[in-house]
Design goal:
Length: about 260
């Protein structure tokens, strides 16, 4: 079995976001594997241990993203591919197209990705890849088992649980609860340093000019306004309700 994991490098969840000249300042920031993508890496590792799969991890981004691939290799991935891209004019349409251009001549039985990225909040790229490749996809999975060429997948749907059977090859996106990602071991870290990462540049990919163009444009970025201090209403309950209604009408203007 051959498994491909799509991963993205994002800000550490503890990092403070700041803007400089209208752009997110990356100076001195700690980067990690997008947490949802980490679930995907862990699931690939579990399948590798159960079924003997070969796991390849792939990311798109600048040179710093190599550290995310090294982490995945230290977790147990066998191969890594980095598509070099500086991040400018890179929307989900663009990124999914260049991923497909890089893998379209390779046969993967299973492609895994995260349900969403914690920086942009988008959850499009993996599903777009499945659509372009013409393979089935199942989103936000919380359980995965494979028997032969048939996979049984569970996913949470509107507070309920849905079970889906799907034939390989297919793509799935990982949701929280799928597993508990392992920490890279020291031997794994040492082995990862010696593993070769395949670097691809856009000029090497068979992709048209139209597919390279972004379909969305970022017009502005700004931080949310500082939270103002709250106000505690006092007095009889009926008086508090009347005052609250008046404030919602006249000050907040939401009713």
């Amino acid at each position: 079995m051959k498994i491909l994991v799509l991963l993205k490098q994002t800000f550490d969840t503890e990092e403070k976001i700041s803007l400089q000249n209208g752009k997110v300042n990356e100076q001195g920031v700690e980067f990690i594997i997008n947490p949802y993508d980490e679930y995907a890496v862990e699931e690939a590792m579990k399948l590798k241990e159960e079924l003997g799969a070969e796991v390849t991890v792939l990311t798109v981004g600048p040179s710093r993203t190599e550290s995310a691939l090294r982490t995945a290799l230290a977790m147990g991935a066998d191969k890594a591919i980095q598509i070099e891209q500086d991040g400018s004019e890179a929307d989900e349409y663009f990124i999914s197209n260049i991923i497909v251009a890089a893998i379209k001549n390779q046969d993967f039985d299973l492609i895994l990705g995260g349900n969403a990225s914690i920086d942009s909040g988008a959850g499009q790229i993996a599903i777009r890849v499945a659509e372009i490749l013409g393979i089935p996809h199942v989103a936000t999975i919380t359980k995965l088992s494979i028997d032969g060429r048939i996979a049984t997948v569970e996913r949470e749907v509107e507070g309920d649980l849905e079970t889906v059977e799907v034939e390989l090859p297919f793509l799935a996106t990982a949701q929280q609860g799928l597993n508990e990602p392992r920490y890279p071991s020291l031997p794994g870290i040492m082995k990862a340093k010696k593993k070769k990462i395949e670097h691809l540049v856009l000029e090497e990919l068979d992709i048209s000019e139209e597919q390279l163009g972004a379909r969305t444009e970022l017009l502005d970025q700004y931080l949310p306004p500082k939270k103002q201090a709250g106000r505690i209403l006092t007095g009889e309950t009926a008086d508090q309700v009347n005052e609250l209604l008046q404030l919602l009408r006249t000050k907040a203007k939401i009713i």
